[in-house]
């Protein structure tokens, strides 16, 4: 067997009926300008780019700069999201608008928030919105809490990916809930993508080593002093973590184990 068989060329991220080479998903908010956003997104190697429809222009405001000018849909999979929505009705309306603006595009990222301070999801409203969007033919990637039970309910409702937070949105605290995320992974048959809380490249590596299928982030790149360089670091962190997961690490031991055993040697 080739030492690299199955990675990375033959290890795609599959979301619904789509296949992607990159397991890093990035957002478009909080950059100083579009040029900075473009350079960072290109450095990230991401193929899926999420866009907050309520905060970004993808054609609904013809007199404003259009994100699609720097993120052409023929190069990137645009993932409209419902950031800023606090009700089922607002989330549904936002997804329907995105589908109209993007010519029938049906892949969306659902967020229904329940608290303005923490930006934690309203899981009841999220489940209701997921069920309705699936009924309308959307493929739903859904931001959720780290509760394994609600993650299972969302998958049962038809979500094509569950996206538990690792820590509060924009906090940069890193992976705070490894046990919960492991439980979600162990019980899921759709991709589990960490969404929220990542602060640096090592957080991406930890998420991927746990067995997550991908990482979505925005603030950690956009608010770095050198966003494009941080984007490249995040790309490499995801790649390294996935490779380590596939390689299956050595067991942990309490005591030392010589790198060069003496058994069977001659003096």
Description:
With 267 residues, this protein is an alpha/beta fold. It is 34% helix and 15% strand. It is built from 8 helices and 10 strands. It has helices at 34-44, 88-101, 123-135, 148-156, 178-187, 201-210, 219-222, 227-247, and strands at residues 13-15, 18-20, 24-27, 48-52, 77-81, 107-110, 139-144, 161-164, 193-195, 214-217. It has a 5-stranded parallel sheet with strand order 5-4-3-10-9. The protein has a 3-stranded parallel sheet with strand order 6-7-8. A two-stranded antiparallel ribbon has the order 1-2. A hairpin with a 2-residue loop joins β1 and β2. α4 runs parallel beside α5 and α6 runs parallel beside α8 (227-247).
Question: Key terms for this structure?
Answer:
5-stranded parallel sheet; 8 helices; alpha/beta
Low-confidence stretches: 1-6
| Helix-strand string | EEEHEEHEHEHEHEHEHH
Helix content: 25-40%
Largest sheet: 5 strands, parallel
Number of helices in the DSSP assignment: 8
Q: Which radius of gyration do the C-alpha atoms yield?
A: 20 Å
The count of strands amounts to 10
Would you tell me the structural class of the helices and strands? alpha/beta
User: Which strand order does the major sheet show?
Assistant: 5-4-3-10-9
Average predicted confidence as pLDDT? 91
Overall shape: it is: globular
Q: How much strand?
A: 15-25%
Distance between the termini: 35 Å
């Amino acid at each position: 067997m080739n030492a690299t068989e199955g990675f990375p060329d033959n290890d795609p991220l599959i979301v619904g009926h789509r296949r992607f080479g990159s397991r890093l998903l990035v957002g478009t908010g909080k950059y100083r300008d579009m040029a900075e956003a473009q350079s960072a997104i290109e450095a990230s190697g991401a193929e899926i780019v999420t866009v907050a429809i309520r905060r970004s222009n993808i054609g609904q405001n013809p007199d404003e700069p259009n994100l699609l000018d720097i993120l052409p849909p023929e190069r990137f999979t645009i993932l409209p999201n419902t950031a800023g929505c606090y009700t089922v009705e607002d989330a549904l309306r936002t997804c329907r608008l995105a589908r109209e603006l993007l010519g029938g595009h049906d892949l969306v990222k659902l967020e229904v928030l329940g608290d303005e301070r923490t930006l934690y999801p309203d899981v009841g409203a999220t489940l209701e919105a997921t069920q309705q969007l699936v009924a309308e033919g959307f493929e739903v990637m859904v931001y959720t809490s780290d509760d394994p039970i609600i993650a299972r309910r969302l998958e049962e409702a038809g979500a094509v990916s569950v996206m538990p937070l690792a820590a509060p949105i924009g906090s940069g605290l890193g992976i705070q809930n490894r046990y919960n995320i492991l439980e979600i992974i162990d019980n899921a048959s759709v991709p589990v993508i960490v969404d929220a809380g990542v602060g640096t490249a090592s957080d991406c590596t930890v998420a991927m080593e746990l067995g997550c299928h991908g990482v979505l982030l925005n603030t950690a790149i956009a608010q770095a002093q050198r966003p494009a360089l941080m984007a490249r670091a995040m790309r490499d962190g995801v790649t390294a973590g996935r490779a380590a997961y596939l390689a299956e690490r050595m067991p942990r031991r309490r005591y030392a184990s010589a790198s060069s055993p003496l058994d069977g040697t001659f003096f």
